[in-house]
Every structure is written in structure tokens, then in C-alpha cells.
Amino acid sequence: MLQRSGILVHRSGDKSYFAHLGASGEDQFLSDHLWQVSAICKRLGGKIGMANWTPEGFWGQTFGLQARYVPPPAGLRGAPEWGTEQRLRELFGDAVTSTQIERKSALFRFRSPQHWIEVFSTYFGPIMRTLEALDPERRRAYLADLDATLRRFNRSGDETLVVSADYLEVVMIKK
To answer: pTM to 2 decimals?
Structure first.
């Protein structure tokens, strides 16, 4: 097994490879992932699979909010763009012979929006780093905006939190 920049590569006995890329939004900021995927998946007909949050969905909006408070490094485009067919065509273009895309949803359940904020502020790198980068006043504003985003997407109908987060399930065949 080889690990590099959030990618795990497994080689099986028949000399085929299986690669896993990190699934958090911050991984989608890393432009070199595209080239690493291409390098790993060299053989004709190799499959590239991804699950990318959509810009209009919960995680796309959450990462968009994060970028308003702590912009990504210059020259890098936001992670939610990977959740659009247009961006995937720009990134992979003629390097693939076919692309299958299916819109899906992942359900997140928490005791409350505040519980979600506590958990993700403690254990989820992108939100932890955003909070660390902000002064106390902007931190309070960010948390208020994050709470508003959670409440906007909440489908529970009570004090609990049930958020459906849309993503694109993508399978491409490499040329």
C-alpha cells in the first residue's frame, strides 16, 4: 500500500490497482489529485470513481460559507465545483472515454444543529481550521451563519437535525 496526499493505493496480486482518495471537501481543493488519479489509473479502461458534494447541496453551501470567511489559496477553485458535470468535463476532458454520473444523497442525523456544530468543530478539519483562523468576532459570525445553514437544510420538523446532503456519484473510464 502507498499513501500520498490523501490517496491510498492498493496493489493486488494480479497487478491491478485500487486507489482511494480522501472524501472530505478539503481534498477537492488539492489540484494535484487529478494528476495523481491519472497516474495511478494508467491502463486502458481503468475506472476512476468519485463522490463529489454538489454546490447547491448542504456540503457545497457549507464549504461555500467557509470560503467566504477563509478563502482558498490563490489560484485554487472551490471544492463544490467538483460536484458539477461542467467542472468534471473541464478537469478530465478527453482523458476518459465515458462518464456515468448519478445524483445521490447522504443523510446526516444529530441531536440538534448545536450538536452538529460541536462535533464538527471538534473533529472535522476544514471547520476546525476555519474556526482557528478567525478572530473572536468573525468566529461568532461564522458560527451564526453555519447555524443558519444547518437550520435551512434541516428536515426533521423538531429540535433534532436531519440534513440530506446531495452529491454526484461519478464513474469514469480512462482512455
So the answer is: 0.78
